[in-house]
Amino acid sequence: MSAPQVLGLVAALGGLVVLLELLRRRTLREKYALIWSVLLLVSLVGAIFPGMVYRLTDAIGLEVPANLIFFVAFLVLFGLSVQFSLELGRTEERVRTLAEELAILRLEVEQRNAPPTDSEPPVDEV
Fold first, then answer.
1. Taking a C-beta distance cutoff of 8 angstroms, is the pair 52, 10 a contact?
2. What residue ranges do the domains of the chain occupy?
3. Of 82, 83, 106, 112, which sits with the fewest C-beta atoms within 10 Å of its C-beta?
4. What is d(CA 116, CA 68) in angstroms, rounded to the nearest whole number?
């Protein structure tokens, strides 16, 4: 086994251990863990069977396997960026809506708790 293979194996297995620990502590949501686990498993397979990476590089018509790896990494990072941007937009909208609802509720509470002023007509007591 060559040094790059060992490094790839250690990195992929270390990443899986970190991923499982983050899941155990509930600091990473399951939907993100699924994405990262798939990526780590693909990198683990690539580290164990580097011939597959070379064959795939030849099949696509690239000269260097690193170009394939960088291209796939670019696509993954681009996809994650788009996904996070969409979620950020949805979250900002939810926060804005909640802030507006909270402001309305505070105004209602203040109006109920405010003492009557002279300009307000007196309330008939029964």
1. no
2. 1-48, 66-113
3. 112
4. 74
